[in-house]
Every structure is written in structure tokens, then in C-alpha cells.
Hints:
Elements: E1 12-15, E2 18-21, H1 32-36, E3 39-41, E4 44-47, E5 54-56, H2 58-71, H3 80-93, E6 99-107, E7 121-128, E8 142-150, H4 167-179, E9 184-188, E10 194-196, E11 201-206, E12 209-212, H5 223-234, E13 238-241, H6 246-250, E14 254-259, E15 263-272, E16 281-284, H7 292-305, E17 316-318
Parallel strand pairs: 8-9, 8-15, 12-13
Antiparallel strand pairs: 1-2, 1-7, 3-6, 4-5, 4-6, 5-17, 6-7, 9-10, 11-12, 11-14, 14-15, 15-16
The protein binds pyridoxal-5'-phosphate.
Amino acid sequence: MFDNTYFPKAKKFWQSGKMYEWSQPTIHSMTHALHYGTSVFEGIRAYKTSRDPAVFRLKEHLDRLFHSASILRMTVPYTKEEITESIKLVVKENKLDSAYIRPLLFYSYGNLGLLPKASPVELSIGAWEWGAYLGEKAEKGVHACIVPWRRIHRSQFNMTAKLGGVYVQSAISGMEARSKGFDEAIFLNIEGRVAEGPGENIFIIKNGILKTNNNAESILEGITRSSLLEIAKNIGIETAVGPIEKEELFNADEAFFCGTAVEISSIVRVTDASDPNSPEKEYSIGNGEFGAMTKKIKQTYLGVVTGNLSQYENWLTFVFD
Ligand SMILES: Cc1ncc(COP(=O)(O)O)c(C=O)c1O
């Protein structure tokens, strides 16, 4: 019933304690989460290393999954250790060298009142081979569009959790940006400063200083973001954390998106379409090319995730250990 065209190499998934063939339907259309977005999820990657595949920062992803679940008042029916084992199993069963891994906790079938009082919490885990999130074009750098929608503000909702329903704003804005020919969207926050991408954090580089914002700016503080701040310091790059004004982005020497799915993707052009009543304006970031410092950070990051830099080995969970 379900083919795997957009899920390369996906053969099986795990749900509530059992492995299923990828094509097998397992949920009822009256599932609570399907109607109200009452789910939480993680996006995790495993990379091919010289040993066996290794999951990057699994502990941090599971901590965030449980944090997200607590925001949605879910009682997670598994321990972190059990989920770790199930994730390893899914990567193994699909015979993947590298994988994007998607654990999803959701209020399942039981009732359809807004309060999921008779809907049990279920967990499913899928994994497949997912290449460049922003396409091959990302190798050269992407053209992002600042969309008119402002990122949901941290005073309006808890933006530290990965709640399914909140991603409707990301999905719509991403579609809007692409329908106008851009590679990705950028949100400003309600204060009018740079927030984040629909599924990415943003870094800028100016005069050799690597800067990003934090959750005071209504962003999800990503695990890639915090890893990069640490890696950058270790390779001698000065870092700063604080609000990023729109003009700082336009005048940056380099800028990039980062996140588990996107990894590191240079932003080489930005179109400001944030005000529907003013004409759009296009800016080249730096010299409009994938910058040298972004390249260095990306290379180091790829060295870290693939286990080539032993000082970061405690960030890796080997699938066959
Ligand atoms: C809205 C949003 N911001 C930032 C990120 C980057 O987070 P991470 O690096 O943990 O993948 C993601 C991806 O999970 C995201 O969905």
C-alpha cells in the first residue's frame, strides 16, 4: 500500500514493540495526532564510520524527545534505553550504513475530543537513507527568502519542544518559499530579528566571529547548533550568542543553515520578503559564494559525525556495539 519512493532503502519500521514491513498500514484514520498535531518527534542521523554506523548525539536527541513529550503531557511508554535499542534495531534491520532516523510519539486511537484522554501514547521509529536535505544545490549555497510570517513567539507557545502541530507553520512557509523559486524560508521573530529556518538554525560570520542566536529569540536551540558552537571553539574560532538583526544577516561575510537534516548549508543569497507591503529586496551574502570558514566548519563537522575525530567519540552511539 505504501511505497518507499521518498524513503530510499526503507524496508521496515518499528511501532509499539514490533517491526513492520514498510508498506504495512498500522494506524487508524481517527488517530488523535492526525487531527490535532498531538505528536512529538526527533530527527536524528546515523553516519557511516570506519567501524559500523554511529548515531550522532543520540542521548541529546532522546533527552529532547522526552522534554517534548512532557510539554504535551505524554507518559512515554518506553525508557530511553529501550528506545536506544529500538533505534539501533531499526538501522540494523534496514541494513543502513547511514540513516535519517525518525522517532515519533503520538496520541493514538481512542477518542477525538481535543483532550486525548482515551488515546494511548504510541511510539514509531522509521529510518531511511536521506541525502542532502536542501538538494544538491546546497553544495553551492542556497538562496533563502525571509517570509512574512513571524516565527511563533516563545510567549505564545513553548518553542523548545518539537511538537508535531507547530510544524504546520514550518511546512507552509517552506512551501511558500519554494513556490516562489527560493530554496528555503527564514523566519523573523515578532521583534523583527532573525529567528530560524523552518527546520534549521542560522549562523552568521562577520570579521571571523561565528554568531548565532538562542531561545530568547523564539528558536529551537538545535543539537547541531550547540555541537557547532563547541566544535568552533575547539578549532580556534571565536563565537558569540545573541540576537541577530536582519541587517547583520545581509551584511554578514558568510551565513549558513544548520540542523540534523540539513547538516550545514551555506546561505549565499537572501531575499527580504518579510513585509508584504514593501517590494522584495535581494542581498548577496559576502561574495555570494560558499565561504571558506563555513567550509572549514562543515568539514570538521563531517569529520566529527563520521568518527574521524576521536575527541568527539563520546557523541557517537555505535549501532553494533
Ligand atoms: C525549527 C527547527 N529549528 C532548528 C532545528 C535544528 O535542530 P537540530 O540541530 O537539533 O536538528 C530543527 C531541526 O530539528 C528545527 O526543526
